[in-house]
Amino acid sequence: MGKGASSLSEGVMKKILLSYAYVGIWIFLSFTVIVYNKYILDRKMYNWPFPISLTMIHMAFCSSIAYLLVRVLKLVEPVAMSRELYISSVVPIGALYSLSLWFSNSAYIYLSVSFIQMLKALMPVAVYSIGVLFKKDSFKTDTMVNMVSISVGVAIAAYGEARFDSWGVILQLGAVAFEATRLVLIQILLTSKGITLNPITSLYYVAPCCLGFLFIPWIIVEFPVLKQNSSFHLDFVIFGTNSLCAFALNLAVFLLVGKTSALTMNVAGVVKDWLLIAFSWSVIKDTVTPVNLVGYGLAFLGVAYYNHSKLQALKAKEAQKKAAQADEEAGRLLQEREGEGSGRRTESQG
């Protein structure tokens, strides 16, 4: 008995430690990619303000590695994907993803890391609102009140921002809107059709599509400037390690969601945001005002309550599913017993 309990507790402890390890790896890589992108794009740091070019480098690198893993090494199975399905489902998702990445990377040129994390707190608001619009979520008054409280908190944080830049805010809010629409469309266009993409297959199908979409604005906006700036030479160490971190982050998402849950990633995201705000203030020396913190604190409480509500709904759904399975099993056993009983009565009559 003692040995059984000990091995069980060891198994549980190992699972908990692994979960914390996955969370830690994801936070570290997400943190690294955000700070690294800020370092490259900021005019006061590496001073390479070409967000479309940086995003295209990431997409080219991720496409190449994904192709290698899927087609050459065959370590990951591709998904059955017809041309019609690719055009109707993957292409719109790729277009939204390219816009989301382009706008979010552009925002680093104009806004501080801390303020960008505060604006990202609006993601649940955007996902829920677009979900209701596309009839993937039902309208609930209490949820909408919570969404309003998050929005008010972000508005207060924006009011207290020392380096407020209207264009940077528009870019970041646009990135949030495009990303939220992409997440909802994944449910509508792929998940509802029984197609599930892990980060490798997702990059295999979506990254080349993003690359194609980004090429159009790149030719118009950034290529002429880069052509004039003949003194620039691509630093393979900087851009190679930056792209590697971006690819590793996708793998970390797969590990975290696959081994824990999407909700765990949401909670870990809140921890990461606070760490980034602290890093931005203490190391990068961005100004974080008391009004910033009060506003983000209010938004944080709203996001925490939203995650808690989702967890409760998930538990209730799981309990309902188990109860339905138990009822089905009980009904099946009852039918079997009744069948056996009628069989015996027939034999006795014979």
Succession of helices and strands: HHHHHHHHHHH
Q: Which outline best applies? A: globular
Number of helices: 11
Residues in helices, as a percent range? over 70%
User: Which ranges are low-confidence, i.e. pLDDT below 50, for 5 or more consecutive residues?
Assistant: none
Domain Sugar phosphate transporter: 21-307
Subcellular location: Membrane
Region (Disordered): 325-350
Pfam families: TPT (PF03151)
Written overview of the protein:
This protein has 350 residues and is an all-alpha fold. It has a domain at 21-137 and 165-230 and 237-260. Helix content is 82%, strand content 0%. It contains 11 helices and no strands. The protein has helices at 2-41, 51-72, 83-110, 113-119, 123-133, 141-159, 166-189, 199-228, 236-259, 262-282, 290-349. Helix 1 crosses helix 10 and helix 2 (51-72) runs antiparallel to helix 8. The protein is globular and about 90 Å long. The model has no long low-confidence stretch (mean pLDDT 85). Residues 325-350 are annotated as: Disordered. One of its GO terms (biological process) is transmembrane transport. Keywords: Membrane, Transmembrane, Transmembrane helix. It is a multi-pass membrane protein.
